[in-house]
Amino acid sequence: MKRTLFLTLVVIAFLGALISTRTGVAGDGRTKSVAPLVKDNPLSNLWSGFYYAKTETKDMQLDDFENPGMLYVEEGEALFNKTAGKADKSCASCHGNVAVSMKEAGARYPVYYPPLKRLINLEQRINLCRSEFQKAERLEYESRELLALTAYVRHQSKGVPVRVKVDGAAEPFFEKGKAFYYQRRGQLDMACSHCHEGNYGKMIRSNQLSQGQANGFPTYRLKWQGLGSLHRRFRGCNKQVRAKPYAFGSENYVNLELYLNWRGGGLEVETPAVRN
Amino acid sequence: MCTPFSGRGKAFAWLPAGLFSVAVLVTPLTFASLLYAADSGDKSREAESSLVSFEIIDNIHSKAIPKSLTGKKGNPKRGEVVMINRKLGNCLACHHLSRFDEKAKALPNKYGDMGEVGPPLDAVAERYDAGQLRLLLVDAKEVFPDTIMPAFYKVKGLHRVLPDYEGKPILEPQDIEDVLSFLLTLK
Q1: Do the chains contact at A204 and B168, CB–CB below 8 Å?
Q2: Helix, strand, or coil here: B156?
Q3: Do B162 and A244 lie within an 8 Å CB cutoff?
Q4: A205 → closest Cβ in B113, B148, B154
């Protein structure tokens, strides 16, 4: 009897150890890593950029009154409910209760969009809605309005684990995004993988390299003193390795966006995140 | 995986130069040698660039550029300036050097925030000889194909380089020689 009990305890301890190597809790007690959704993810443990942020930055993100990104979310809410364009409709005219209708959207984009035969991200979905249904002018990428609307919509998915569709029609675009990720570029001749897959957690000068996860975007960056899109971050990374960046909303970046969200599949949406 | 310098240093037992020497790369300076490079096909990697010519010696156990890029000796004092400069070598972005620990406290703008992406540079001259180090500076990917470390003297085979940097190596040949001479003091 005692022997059985002992063996059971040993098995439980072993399983516990096994699970704890798959996920972990950071020293601050506020960050959990998650196991990837898919087994072919090259990362065995997923860490949101939140984990690599300084304590003050984490505090700022977690407090809705302190989080400067929430100003954009509020602006986005106003825009969402305001009529625009010749059709005299607001986003809310079609989408109704946003907490329900948009609960998953922020965790699922980019998606394959058959009429264009390519992927579209959230920003592009918003602009398509404007031109198709609201008969309104499209908003410029990285404009305050588009950032605010995107942040408001994705904020509805806060806490929802990212899960993007990468098979079927999306697959060739996923593959292109993956190829982009591993392509060396610029005078410094580095691929995304060199910092964010092979060296995350290490210090490069005064910055700790993260896994380059996308779950907090649009993100308020202290360096920007404002909210910025994932594509702005891509452009910054490209320029840092002295490579020609692509345009905001370019197909290359949307493909990469899909690939990154697949790498981060399982991490919760944090929009608007705060980072340094 | 992509870890730079993943323990392959041991394979670098340095054999006497010339024992198995094969010149794998000749970068031509003159028009005539440009033509030669075009004819010889595979040797034209640095052709049509403004880079000075150099030879990579590959003797199976070790790759190296034994000769100075400029024919001159390096200046270790200037080398230190080039290596710490964030717009030039910026070596400390990735490498730690214990010799600089005190200076890092006194002059944080210059020596502070040493990174940990690459291996520490302590005693690097005991691990590699001059020719091997020169090659690691010129193009570390000749030795470690997956490394994150940029090639400091290379302009070809790069993808989408920003126009400001196009056709220009990160460092000039004498910069390489100066940094090298500084690294050789690390014993």
Answers
A1: no
A2: coil
A3: yes
A4: B113
Residues A104 and A226 occupy one common structural domain: no
| pLDDT tens per residue across all 187 residues of chain B | 333 443 333 333 333 444 444 444 444 333 333 333 333 333 344 445 689 999 999 987 899 999 999 999 999 999 999 999 999 999 999 999 999 999 999 999 999 999 999 999 999 999 999 999 999 999 999 999 999 999 999 999 999 999 999 999 999 999 999 999 999 999 9
Q: Which residues of A are known to be catalytic?
A: 237
Residue pointed to by tokens 């040493």: B114
Q: Does A163 lie in the same domain as A57?
A: yes
Q: Does B45 touch chain A (CB under 8 A)?
A: no
Alpha-carbon span A201 to A27, nearest angstrom: 14
A202 CB within 8 Å of a chain B CB:
yes
- Stated as kind and residue range, the H or E segment containing B26 is strand B23-26
CATH number of B8-183: 1.10.760.10
Residue A200 counted as domain residue:
yes
CA–CA dist A200, A188 (Å, integer): 18
Task: Label residue B168 exposed, middle or buried (CB < 10 Å: 0-12, 13-18, 19+).
Answer: middle
- Calpha distance B89→B79 (Å, rounded): 9
Judged by phi (left if over 0) then psi (alpha if -120 to 50, else beta), residue B90 lies in left
Domain membership flag for residue A133: yes
Give how far the C-alpha of residue A138 lies from the chain's centroid of Cα atoms, to the nearest Å. 23
Residues A109 and A75 grouped into a single domain: yes
Find out whether A211 and A267 touch, Cβ atoms under 8 Å: no
SS3 B58: strand
**How many CB pairs below 8 Å do chains A and B form together?**
80
Across the interface, whether the CB atoms of A186 and B160 are under 8 A apart is answered yes
Inter-chain contact A205–B170, Cβ cutoff 8 Å? no
Which residues of chain A does B108 touch, with a Cβ-Cβ cutoff of 8 Å? none
Neighbouring CB atoms inside 10 A of B40's CB total 13
Whether the CB of A276 is below 8 Å from some CB of chain B: the reply is no
Q: What ipTM was reported for this prediction? A: 0.86
- Domain holding A41, by residue range, is 28-66+159-275
Angle at A14 between CA A9 and CA A15, to 5 degrees: 100
